[in-house]
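For the sake of transparency, this paper describes our internal protein records without simplification. Because each token names a local backbone shape, the row as a whole describes the fold. One such record is reproduced below, unchanged from the form in which we store it:
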Amino acid sequence: MEPSEDDRQWSLESLEKAYQQGYMAGLTGQPRDRQPYTAEVPAAAWEAGWDDGHEQYRLAQKSA
């Protein structure tokens, strides 16, 4: 399958931004389905950030 044009237009900086946005969303308890990206690569970066942030959120909830 040919990558879409959106998937070819990312940089390390844009992926870091997507990761950080996902991390903050997970950290603040926002649902994973609020992922804002349509392109596969930044969406995966956001989801990885969300996973890491949500883990921290869960740990904070347990210790509260």
